[in-house]
Amino acid sequence: MANPDSNSLQLSAESLALIDMEIAKYPADQKQSAVMGALRIAQSERGWLKPELIEYVADYLEMPAIAAYEVATFYNMYDTQPAGRHKITLCTNLPCMLLGAGELGNYLKQKLGVEFGETTEDGRFTLKEGECMGACGDAPLCLHNNHVMHSYLTPEKVDELLDKLK
Amino acid sequence: MSLLAPNSQVCSWTQSLDNPASLATYVAHGGYQALRRIVTEQMPGDTIIAELKTSALRGRGGAGFPTGLKWSFMPRAFPGDKYIVCNSDEGEPGTFKDRDILRYNPHQLIEGMAIAGYVLGARVGYNYIHGEIFDCYDIFERALNEAREAGFLGDKLFDTDFCFQLHAHLGYGAYICGEETALLESIEGKKGQPRFKPPFPASFGLYGKPTTINNTETLASVPWIMQHGGQAFLELGKPNNGGPKLFSVSGHVNKPGNYEVPLGTPFSELLAMAGGVRSGHKLKAVIPGGSSAPVLTGEIMMDCTMDFDSIAKAGSMLGSGAVIVMDETVCMVRALERLSYFYFEESCGQCTPCREGTGWMYRVIHRIEHGQGRADDLDLLNSVASRIGGHTICALGDAAAMPVQSFLKHYGHEFEHHIEHKRCMDGTGQ
């Protein structure tokens, strides 16, 4: 189905090349397998997945838009609401909690003036509570924009990180 | 350290080397020799499966199922597409061992998957990597490219008819995808909701084709076994529990991290390797196999050895070997509250007992923790837990119920204290 806004939603050539590499991983008749990668790449370029962007990705992969929505809303690293320029996802699960993630969460909330799931008024930061990231030996830890992990966090390290992210 | 020398480190030997993840390092220490020999000598698949059975290699992802037996279930002679899939989606609280294989020894996993492809008749494999460890996904993608360029992946390998392609698939934040059929759904580009079994993946797997799914550490152990023989691997562990195993030790220890030790190593030794309980504190409780495994008291654990059978006998599970250590300052109500929230958050929503029950358990534990517990809440919790376990399509339901039942069994007095006094027991909850 043609999307009336598809021109304005056109992803960059770099992103499309990355999506094509994802598609190439799977059998020719299984393009839908690339939807997780394609949504990730689209989100990295645009900051969050607005409905039209999800539909664009679905069109590109020749799959029903509803199936792409299902994926975007099932996996919790996709943002289907506007997010700040820098998304900080703090793991608060048990191993991280044992090493002070609860206190760090309070520190971050106080410092940014937001609760988990909220974005600062200037649009700079979104703070999220995360589930286990599979790196508990480096606890406590957080992710910056899904792809960069910061380990062995302390309040000082949190300060340094936030200062760096403009 | 090397893959050639039969030492006790099967998966973590590259960590003491420069550029541990590089192809050059791996090949210089004997990497890809087993694959080359198997493929060029046209070794029968049955011979390799027999070697795995001798090794007593048991699945490292949590279930401990014998790998040789699992491979024998695959209809290898079945014409048409078949798949080998690696489960690197470790997101169970406490588990972080496969991450170190991906970032420090990716080629041993690639070689193990290629051998699996050869035995199982799969020309294509996928490695499903936990979404939150993007840097490891990057490293693994680079390793795949190195292996392709060097002729260890691709068409007509070693000038034979054997072809094997391998790709990485990145998850994006769903614990349930560690369940093997949810993982297959996820590779197919769908919500990660587990499938009914049967049919099992060996007959109806990825894209409906015969598929074998193994854990990262399991597959990475295969080249070592084919290099040194199943007997040598078995002797590194104990009967029925072959080999060493990576244990991820987290929580209140001085040196959290991964430790590869023989199965059957006393827990006390593993704890000492991890630097012991953090300075000035006493051991209170241990979850020996990832957050889904029943919690045990420190005293029980100090009498256990780290293998599938010993931990099972003590009333818990070795699981993926994720050892969460808690000292005397931990409020067990708060600890369970956090774990219960995890299962509530991660339930895929497909089965009513799990979708609704995990919410009930979290809310009841939450109110106990916050001073609003009721006298009959512990009975209610046990009742809800027993109505989830065994009544769902996949094991997440059991995984959510077991922590609740075991925390109440061993630390019920702390929950009663919370209900009665509306606060933590003295000395805990700091």
Brief overview:
The complex is a heterodimer of chains A (166) and B (430). With 166 residues, chain A is of the alpha+beta class.
What would the keywords be for this entry?
heterodimer, A: about 170 residues, alpha+beta, 8 helices, 5 strands, elongated, B: alpha/beta, 4-stranded parallel beta sheet, 17 helices, globular
Give the number of DSSP strands of chain A: 5
Range of strand content of chain B: 5-15%
Record the strand order, biggest sheet of chain B: 6-5-11-8-9
The best one-word shape of chain A is elongated
Low-confidence stretches of chain B: none
Q: What is the residue-mean pLDDT of chain B, rounded to a whole number? A: 95
What pattern of helices and strands is seen along the backbone of chain A?
Answer: HHHHHEHHEEEEH
Q: CA-to-CA gap between the ends of chain A?
A: 39 Å
Number of helices of chain B: 17
Work out the radius of gyration of chain A.
18 Å
Spatial sequence of strands, sheet with the most strands of chain A:
2-3-1-4-5
Give the overall average pLDDT of chain A: 94
Structural class of chain B: alpha/beta
**What structural class is derived from the secondary structure elements of chain A?**
alpha+beta
Radius of gyration of chain B: 22 Å
What is the distance, rounded to the nearest whole angstrom, between the alpha carbons of the first and last residues of chain B? 43 Å
**Major sheet details of chain B:** 5 strands, mixed
**Largest sheet, strands/sense/barrel of chain A:** 5 strands, mixed
The general outline of chain B is globular
Tell me the greatest interface: A-B, 44 and 56 residues
Strand content of chain A: 5-15%
